[in-house]
Amino acid sequence: MGPWCCLLLLPLLAVPLRAQQQQFMEYVERRLTLLEERISQWHDQSSRYSTELRDFKNQVLGMLEAAEKEREAMRAEAESAAVRVDRLEREVDYLETQNPAPPCVEVDETLMDKQVATAKQRKNEKYTKLTDCSDTIASVRAMKILKRFGGTSGLWTKDAAGNSEKIYVFDGTANDTVYVFPRMREFTLFSATRKAARIKLPYPWVGTGHLVYDGHLYYIRQQGLSFQVIKFNLANKTVVDSSVFPAEEQIPVFGLSPFTYIEVAADEEGLWAIYATKEDEKNICLAKLDPGSLDIEQMWDTPCPRENAEGAFVVCGALHVVYNTRLPSRSRVQCVFDVSGTLAPEDASLVYFPKRYGSHSSMKYSPRERQVYAWDDGYQIIYRMEMKKKMEV
């Protein structure tokens, strides 16, 4: 076939090619149109969803705002109710604390001089033990943090002699209202003070050296430059007795607790008073206290220094002084003074308390439970003690 034949066939072949190209272009246009429709549909749906989401958000914000207003209204009502309840409790407390006039607590100078002379005469005499208790602290067996209640300084305790499970809380270093919880469970679970009964004392206390012993509260009252031990009956809310402490020119007993001048303590032997005077301002003094008459039976000068002392308690007739530093570290029993002389200071165990938040503002030993109730920067802590016989230390 010659070249002229090929030229004749070219127009015949061009017609199908143009038809195929036209079909391809139409197919592409249809696909693009379908894609544009889908994009437009997606855009419409997205716009609708955005509008619905915005409307839902505005609805939720409105509901939250309404809920916040209701919460504020309920909080205001709760605060108003709490104020009314507190007012009612104060009125009830006022009615409950109306009692006969307390015994006269005026200072009899002659009696005061006689008490001081008698106490000085018996100072540092040999002590005759009342019980066969021969235990001493070996270590801190366990520690339990109950809760955080009240201010940085305070006192909490049980009755050191009776079987009552009541918890007594003294919030602060100068107050006149004691909170009473029926059991440890209520004290642990409830943080509001309105869950506790209140005892309004006839005189405000000072420091954190108070004690609940055999149904009575022994607390410290400051009157001018002198200090009184007040014996208060917890059952009938009356002052049973009071006595001016027969020590001259008293100073804070613990270097790290400048608010405590007398620490009333209990052990297996009975009641004790821990104090300090300007006469021997470097060291701590100890006295045996008659729980019935509040008389001082005997007094001792101890070798335990006041500096860096934060608290003290008595176990089986032995004074244990707890020390710390002004930059709080681990508290430790670093000085032990046994009034009966059966435990030499160098033979006593060096007892460490686990490091917590600061220094203890109070430490009350319970002889019937063998544990210490401590107040550490507003936290209430129980230290369970491991005991040993003195001859085994």
Automatic annotation (TrEMBL):
It is found in: Secreted. Belongs to the OLFML3 family. Pfam families: OLF. Residues 132-389 form the Olfactomedin-like domain. This is OLFL3 protein. The lineage of its organism: Eukaryota, Metazoa, Chordata, Craniata, Vertebrata. The gene is Olfml3. Residues 1-19 form the signal peptide. Keywords: Coiled coil, Developmental protein, Disulfide bond, Glycoprotein, Secreted, Signal. One of its GO terms (cellular component) is extracellular space. InterPro entries: Olfac-like_dom, Olfactomedin-like_domain. One of its GO terms (biological process) is signal transduction. It comes from Piprites chloris. Residues 57-98 form a coiled coil. Its main location: secreted.
